[in-house]
Amino acid sequence: MKRSNERLEATSGSYANGVAREWPKARLFPQDWAAYLRGLITPFNVIAGAIILVGLVLVVIRFIYGLGAVTSASQDQPWGLFLSWGLFCGVPMSATGFVLGTAVYVFGMKAYHPVVKNAILVGFLGYLFAVISLLVDLGRPWRLPYPIIGNFGTASVLFLVAWHVLLYLTCQFLEFSPSVLEWVGLRALRQRAGQIIVGLTIVGAILSTLHQSALGAMFLLVPGKLHPLWYTPYLPVLFLVSAIAAGICVVIFVSQITRYFFKDKGDREYFGSLDKITLGLGKAAAFVLVTYFGLKLIALAHANAWDYLGTPYGYWYLVEILGFVLVPTILFIIATNRHSVKLVRFTAIFALVGVIINRFNVSMIALNWQLPEREFFAWKEFLIVLAIITTEIVVYRWIVNRMPVIRELPDAEH
Amino acid sequence: MDREAGKEMVVKKATGIGRRDFLKGALAVTGSLVGLSLLGNRNKVLAAEDFSGNPNRFGMLTDITRCIGCRRCEAACNKANNLPAPKVAFDDKTVFEEKRRTDAGIYTVVNRYANPKTGQPVYRKVQCNHCAEPACASACPVGAFKKTPEGPVIYDEKICIGCRYCITACPFYIPTFEYDDAGSPAIQKCFMCFQRISKGEVPACAVECPVEAITFGKRSDLLRIARDRIKNEPDRYINQIYGETEAGGTDWLYISGVPFETLGFPTNLGTKPMPELTREFLSSVPLVLAIWPALLGGAYLFAKKQKELSNETKQ
């Protein structure tokens, strides 16, 4: 045992030496700069570059003239698109790593193994860019570490969210690290990192359970401000269950994207298993959405808010839970019964929009519903959010093009 | 009771209380140390852990029936807190044409409403209500807000990260944020002139009010004064002290001649302190931390064993 450990270290040592000299030249920088730069000029890159540039300019304006210069945030309505989209939609959509990781590594559902690394990467980037949105939104973003280093607001749900997002970001980075280490060429270290994945996944599941529900719990504090159709003591569990649904739907959606845009980056096992995985995920999504719909009804009955159903907010509420929860649930059931991969894919987007509508309702539209005049967000905010999403896509593409994300790691266990 | 004398008395109590309390406290601590009664305290069984706050804390009482809408409290507040000059002069009555709210640089505003019965103007002063258990303080992830034993809810700009959850959390729409400041944007609200109270002085708005619509004093005394006024002039007042129980009780109290909802007061808050709404969730956190590892670890071992068994049967 001891000898094998020594050998492991020796190999990783010599690897590391070699890597330090050769690797950046071979992997990080292009062999032929001129050809590389010419290759960069594609319609996608030009558009993406323009969007990011506009966003950057607006972010600079925000940090010179204050938040008021780019957002429509007011003294009555302090939060806008950066939080409603970036945090309250971004985090549930990033439940991918937690859901698939738990299924594969903890519950031993090996059939989903081909998509798990991609799910973890999407989750990691989702959290990373949620934090980036938050950095744009915070009044003093340079104080982001304050809740971690000594200023403990232990009575605050947001304090819990801050800690968990930090810990979970670290956790997901470590979960994804085997792919990074394989790309860097540190294979021995990569194999070691692979050994702690079960532990990391369990830690990740605990953290996700808590902070996904904590995002809902943040609104427990505002019974007078959030519309009675959305305010319920069940908010934490509703947020957790719908985050699981969102995570599953995002995996279905992103898997389909890889089929179009990363044809040469995946192995046969990955592309060969996608249809079966999509159907399985569709079934899981149906199950989760049935639960979610049931919980929504229980919450409505508990709040005894039936009378509000006949008001404009009530119609909008019905659109959310019938149009974007019940209908996708039924479609998922039909699709999986008929083995229609196509319908599962369509329904995944449909259901995902439903979760996004829910988060916008709770954090923006149904919040402060009694105020006479409201403006939800400004166009400049929208452009910054668009730039953040675009950056995330570009970073995702950069990683999938280089690291083993949708292909198996060599000598991986099954 | 003569108004002037009443105010005088309250002020005297307010200024004297610090020393007396300190002496009492010092005596109590010495006594309990000598008597080893600290041990006894530890064994005391509480039926419920209800928080009633410092019984001697200060508060303010606004008598809406007295207010004449002169806005001198606004001017006094502006001066006492070194706030920026107002856009519209403090003696300009045109501001009453719309309902204003607190803003960055404006800790308090007076709004005009119409008496639903007589049509006469009724003026309402708006500022932080200094909740007994403030929602803003429980929302703040860095603990920048603090309920002082003296009563005022104060704020530490040095640790604020600018997340603005306090603004979302406040049921009274009070805290404001400096949206036009990129370098050091801070939360602003009324601090009940904590800097003056600490020196034994009375908050500026109460001093400047020419009709004694604003009274400063111990909250318990103010409640008694409010009850007396309602009792002595039942036709002048409605029988309610706003802030006595709202959202768990606030240290700024109001009595009025017209129902509070006609003056824009939120009347849907209930009597539960806001922080209790999230307390239950936060107390479930250790449960998840304790139970999930066992459940998930168990599931993992179960799945692993099952795989081994199925491998054995295959062989």
Word description of this protein:
The complex is a heterodimer of chains A (414) and B (315). Chain A is mainly α. Chain A has one domain (44-402): Up-down Bundle (Formate dehydrogenase/DMSO reductase fold). Chain A is built from 15 helices and no strands. Chain A has helices spanning 2-28, 33-40, 43-65, 81-87, 90-93, 96-106, 113-137, 157-184, 187-195, 197-217, 235-261, 268-303, 312-337, 341-365, 379-402. In chain A, α4 packs antiparallel against α7 (113-137), α6 crosses α11 and α13 packs antiparallel against α14. Chain A starts with a helix and ends in a 12-residue tail after the last helix. By secondary structure, chain B is α+β, with helices and mostly antiparallel strands. Among the domains of chain B are: 52-133 and 191-263, Alpha-Beta Plaits (2-Layer Sandwich); 275-315. Chain B contains 9 helices and 9 strands. Chain B has helices spanning 3-35, 37-42, 72-80, 135-139, 165-169, 194-198, 204-208, 219-232, 276-314; strands at residues 58-63, 109-114, 121-126, 145-147, 153-155, 176-177, 187-188, 214-218, 252-255. In chain B, the strands form 4 sheets. A 3-stranded mixed beta sheet of chain B has the order 8-1-9. In chain B, a hairpin with a 5-residue loop joins β4 (145-147) and β5.
Structural key phrases:
heterodimer; A: 414 residues; Formate dehydrogenase/DMSO reductase fold; disordered N terminus; B: 315 residues; alpha+beta; Alpha-Beta Plaits; two-stranded antiparallel ribbon; 9 helices
Secondary structure elements and their pairing?
The complex is a heterodimer of chains A (414) and B (315).
Chain A: H1 2-28, H2 33-40, H3 43-65, H4 81-87, H5 90-93, H6 96-106, H7 113-137, H8 157-184, H9 187-195, H10 197-217, H11 235-261, H12 268-303, H13 312-337, H14 341-365, H15 379-402
Helix pairs in contact in A: 3-15, 4-7, 4-14, 4-15, 6-7, 6-10, 6-11, 7-8, 7-11, 7-15, 8-9, 8-10, 10-11, 11-12, 11-14, 12-13, 12-14, 13-14
Chain B: H1 3-35, H2 37-42, E1 58-63, H3 72-80, E2 109-114, E3 121-126, H4 135-139, E4 145-147, E5 153-155, H5 165-169, E6 176-177, E7 187-188, H6 194-198, H7 204-208, E8 214-218, H8 219-232, E9 252-255, H9 276-314
